[in-house]
Structure formats: C-alpha cells, structure tokens
Amino acid sequence: MSKSHQYSGWSNNIEYSHVKIKPSKYKVDSNLFVPGSKSMTNRALIIAALADGKSEIAGILKSDDSYWCIEALRELGVKIDLVDDKVYVEGMNGKWVKKNSQLFIGAAGTVGRFLPGALAQAAIGEWEVYADEQLSKRPIKDIVNYLNALGGEVSFLNMDGHFPLKVKGRGLKGGEIIASGKISSQFISGLLIASPYAKEKTTIKVVDEVVQISYIKITLNMMEQFGASLQYNEHLTKIIVNNKPYTSQNIVLESDISTACYFFALAALTGGKVVVNNVNCNTLQPDLKFLDFLKEMGCGVDILHTQQQVEVRGPKQLKGGFTFNFKEISDQALTIGILSVFSTLPITITGVAHIRRHESDRIMALSTNLKNIGIKVEENDDGFTVYPGTPTDGIINPYNDHRVAMAFALLGSVIPNIVIENPSCVSKTCPEFFEILSKTGIDVQYIREGDM
C-alpha cells in the first residue's frame, strides 16, 4: 500500500531533483522565525482525537508527518479543520466512528508508535496500519508487545516486528508492565498515550537507561495538559497512569527547537549572527542543550526578551578537541559533525548508536558523504569522530533523510556549489527549510530533473 500527497499550502508541491547552495555575498546577520514542534504536533493531534470534546491546537507544524497523522485520524472518522496554523479537532472520547479501515501513515515514525495504542484501546474495531518502505524497515515490535501485554490485540501482517500491522479494538485492561527505554523513547510514549483508556490504572516500570528521556517528559506534559491523571518519579523509572480519559483543550504549541538548531549552527559556521524569535527557553525539548555545545566551541549565545528569543554569534574559528555525548540531543549529532569539519581539532560524538535505526543509518550517511568530499571520519559503535579539513564541492546523498539533508545544506554556507539530492525529503519536518535558509542570504538554487 503506497500513497503520495499534494496538499496546497502544506508543503512544496513543485518537485526539484536537487538544490545547489552557495555562500552569501554578505556576512550572515538574520532575524528568523521557525515552524512549530514536530514532537508536540503529532502528540497533540492524537491526544485531542482521543479526548472528549472539541480542541483547538495553535502553532502546528505543517509537515509530511503531521499530514499523514491528520489523514489517518480523518480515516477513523475524526472531524479535523485547518485554519492557517490552527487545527480544530472533534475528539471521539476513545471511540472511533469507522470501525474497519486501512490507515496509511507514510514515513511518520511518531504516528507509527502512537497510533497502534490509540486504536487498541477502543472496545470495537479492526484496522490495518500501513507505512511507507522506509518506515516499514524500522522496528515496531516493542510497542506491539507492550500493548498486547496490557490486553491489546495487535499483530503483524507480513514480516514479524515491522509494519504493516493489524489492530483489533478489544480495549486495554491496564496493570503493570516492564518496558525498556534503550531502543526508543517513542515506544514508551505510545504506551503512555493510550493508557488513560485502560480499564484499570497502568503502571509502567522502565528498565535500562532511556534514550532521550526528555521526549517522554514532553509526552507526560502533553497528557497532563489534556487532563490525564499521572504519577511519576524524577527519573521516570516508574510511571502510573490512572483511568481518567482526556478532555478537550485549547493549547498553543512551541516552535521546533531541532529546526532552530540548524540556524544556530549557520551562525557558528559563518562567523555571523542569527536571532531566532519564537523560542521557548524553558522548553522540555532537549535540543536547546545544543546551545551549550556551541558555547564550548567558541560561539556567543544570548537569551533575549523574556526567554523567547535566542541570539547566536559565530567565532572567527570554531574550537575542537572535544568528546561530546549527544544521547539526549541525537537529532543534532549530524549538525555538530558538520561544524567539526571547520574546528581547530577533531570532535568525537558518543551516545548515538540508535541513530543508525532512524530514517537512514545516520552515522553511515555522515561518514560516507564527508569522505566523498575529502574529510576524514571514523565511525564508532555509538558515534563518530570528524577531523577538520578542507572539503571540496560535491553532490550529497541524504538517503531520503531530512536530518542528513538539512545538516549538509549548512556546508553550502561556506563551501561553494554543495548540491543536495532529493531536497523534498526535508518536508518530513520542515518543508520551508530551504526558503528560510535563503532568507539569511545563502544562495539556494532549485534544479529540476535533467537540468544538472
């Protein structure tokens, strides 16, 4: 099962095969806004659909992932209206109108981890959930096992441990479950989101060190905003979810800090200045910690205007010689890898073994592309080391991974004629990425198939 979408105003509908990026003629000095948080958008959409009553969610991210989330919910009978960056969701109180549907979720990993539980908690229904080829290669077995242990009935239609899934609505009984946090925090989040609808309270005991614990905190915070009754300790080793369904809410989502980090890095690379305006500096989004690493590399960082604005100023020369653990902010591992090319000494990133299982093997993608343009990289079990050098121009293969494309696009701010293949892959989280990049003065040229 495969689908594509052409949604006017949602993402860039003009297909280009490549973009060519060249440095600005002037020193970068930009004042920017970035779109809403991907992490919060899909959590809010699914929780609002489960809730009782009509919710208003402002500041949503219009991306491929949120598009497929909305389409899947509509296929279940949820009424959803979009007005600019607001979405109005008529919650179903845990009961789906369409009791038998095929649901397609594209490459939306968060939806793939959150939707099965939202289906399994229903008392009646039977659905098949399909994903695109990329997401179907990623593991899903843990969340299926957790849901079935709580009384769900979820099975694999083809290959064990992977999409597509069959989910029968039989309700969840609740109880106690032991869950591992070492593979993906999204499995635990998916279990949490469904648990308020279990017949009894659900106790989740988390073993192993959690990959990106901040994202579980974002889930818990969103659940509480919609009225869930929870108890949990500081390290989230024990979480209790009581049988108290969600109620509708009017909420405003934060901007996406992961996207903002590419523009912070742009200032660092070019020795320029970038101000991002709509940043919540009290956020639970972990990628704000990226600013601490930029400071260590010699950048100036200031928080302005009541904690809602960040200014980053790049140094004449980035410092190196560090070993950084990026486990909590692994989405920025590739970003720091690109900065390392221009530092005084090599930089080693550890704690990111799990990024080999994302949209691409990101460690391999970084290493292969940098080596192809003359940069020495060593891959490690849980990370990599990048050595400073003078890269040549070249064509970058993003492996259909938005993080790879956005990180390597930064190279074009200092190296002429960096070409990114398949630039539309950024629409997974930030369809406007290249448009925002061009607003900083960086020369972005769109190339159609056959014009290379």
Question: Features of this protein?
Answer:
UDP-n-acetylglucosamine1-carboxyvinyl-transferase, Chain, 13 helices, 24 strands, RNA3'P_cycl/enolpyr_Trfase_a/b, 2 domains, 452 residues, alpha/beta, 3-phosphoshikimate 1-carboxyvinyltransferase activity, globular, four-stranded mixed sheet, 24% strand
The CATH superfamily title of the largest domain: Enolpyruvate transferase domain
Overall geometry: globular
Poorly predicted regions are: 4-13
Rg, alpha carbons: 22 Å
Q: What is the structural class?
A: alpha/beta
Lateral strand order in the biggest sheet: 22-23-1-24
How does the major sheet shape up? 4 strands, mixed
**Mean pLDDT over the residues:** 93
User: Approximately what portion of the residues adopt beta-strand conformation?
Assistant: 15-25%
Instruction: Tally the structural domains.
Output: 2
Describe this structure in words.
This protein is α/β, with parallel strands linked by helices and 452 residues long. It has two domains: 16-36 and 254-448, UDP-n-acetylglucosamine1-carboxyvinyl-transferase, Chain (Alpha-beta prism), CATH 3.65.10; 38-252, Enolpyruvate transferase domain (UDP-n-acetylglucosamine1-carboxyvinyl-transferase, Chain, Alpha-beta prism), CATH 3.65.10. Helix content is 28%, strand content 24%. It has helices at residues 38-50, 64-75, 109-120, 133-136, 141-149, 185-194, 213-225, 257-270, 290-296, 333-340, 362-372, 402-409, 433-439; strands at residues 18-22, 29-32, 52-58, 79-83, 86-92, 100-104, 126-130, 153-156, 165-168, 175-180, 202-207, 230-232, 238-241, 250-252, 273-276, 300-304, 309-313, 323-325, 347-350, 377-380, 383-386, 394-396, 418-421, 443-447. Helix 6 runs parallel beside helix 7.
